[in-house]
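Reopening: DUF2992 family protein still failing for me.
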Amino acid sequence: MKLTIYHNGQFWVGVIEECVDSKLTAMRFVFGTEPHDADVLDFLDRTILTLLTKPSKAVTVKTVVERVVNPKRLARIAAKEINTHGISTKAQEALRVQLEGNKQERQITSRQMKEAAQAKKREMAIHKAKQKHRGK
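Support: Ran it again with your exact input. Result attached.
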């Protein structure tokens, strides 16, 4: 599991990447203004569990066999990751797939609500017309 916190130009965003059985899932959390250490710790203690339990779409990735890394090389890799900004393209793809799924669900529910409102409006108009003609 990997947590990357970066500034997207407007807000601070945390991206959690989890790779299980060559399937990469990515979750996104918006911290808002610059998060303090206490905010990040609170996120790790409480909020991350709810994000990990939510169903999300996964993207298949190739697994790399990890070897023992020289400590100096490990320090260079850590410094490079600190200096780089953003998230991996596979995580971006996983987020995009998840956002598209959420968008489709939202479109379906809004369409159903709109149709129900139109049907209710039609029924009210019919009922009102019947009430007008009842006295004659």
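Residues 6 and 13 are 6 Å apart (CA to CA). If you still see a failure, please send the error message rather than a screenshot.
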